[in-house]
Write a structure and sequence with these properties.
Length: 219
């Protein structure tokens, strides 16, 4: 079964547990822009990415978005099944940033197995700890890093993910990721352009001096 190659603790499950997951597993293909999980109104289940890219973000009361982490190939998302962890009160939205193939493990099935399997419980705690580390890192960036450094880091991350210095991305998308306003991002990018770090055109940002962006990110 292909899923077994992606679920890292598959071999630590009993045959009965493996059968229970196999029989309940849902396979989905979602297009870019699809919202897969929408806050506390959903208990979607655990998401395991086969290929593609998902974005997890939260919304302020004013409707402003900020990304908290991304899910790439083989990544598992637990917050989409927060209903199985009653101490977690986390309003999170998960959206496909690229066309994505994924599996969904129903929340009730995973909860049953987690309650009877120490390896699954330990694995769940490890994944949860890693995600909270991502959130704490984000808080640190917001509190202590100036916006120019955060924009520089974001552009470099996008270039690494897409494998190109020519990014097809609009200013509003960057603002949503970083939890700010489009106009602020536009001013910042124009400053980057004046410093020779990027070249701007409609719907595209080309990184023209990667070293300058890295130096800015690390100052």
């Amino acid at each position: 079964m292909e899923f077994a190659n992606y679920f890292s603790i598959w071999n630590k499950l009993t045959p009965a547990q493996q059968t229970k997951i196999s029989n309940s597993l849902i396979s989905r293909t979602v297009k870019k822009g699809t919202v897969i999980h929408n806050g506390s109104v959903d208990c979607t289940g655990l998401l395991l990415v086969k290929s593609g890219q998902l974005r997890a973000y939260i919304l302020s009361d004013e409707g402003r978005e900020i990304s908290i982490y991304r899910l790439l190939d083989r990544d598992l998302c637990l917050f989409s099944a927060s209903c199985i962890m009653h101490s977690i009160q986390f309003e999170i939205t998960i959206e496909a940033e690229k066309d994505t193939d994924l599996w969904i493990i129903p929340a009730d099935v995973y909860k049953q197995i987690m309650e009877e399997s120490a390896p699954v419980a330990n694995y769940t705690n490890e994944v949860m700890a890693a995600r909270f580390s991502d959130v704490m890192w984000l808080i640190e960036q917001i509190l202590w890093k100036s916006l120019d450094k955060r924009v520089a880091a974001f552009l470099l991350e996008e270039a690494a993910l897409d494998g190109t210095m020519r990014l097809k991305i609009i200013h509003e998308t960057i603002a949503n990721h970083l939890g700010t306003h489009r106009e602020v991002i536009t001013r910042m990018l124009r400053y980057f352009q004046s410093e020779g770090m990027v070249k701007l055109s409609r719907g595209t940002i080309e990184i023209t001096d990667e070293n300058k962006l890295k130096a800015l990110q690390n100052t």
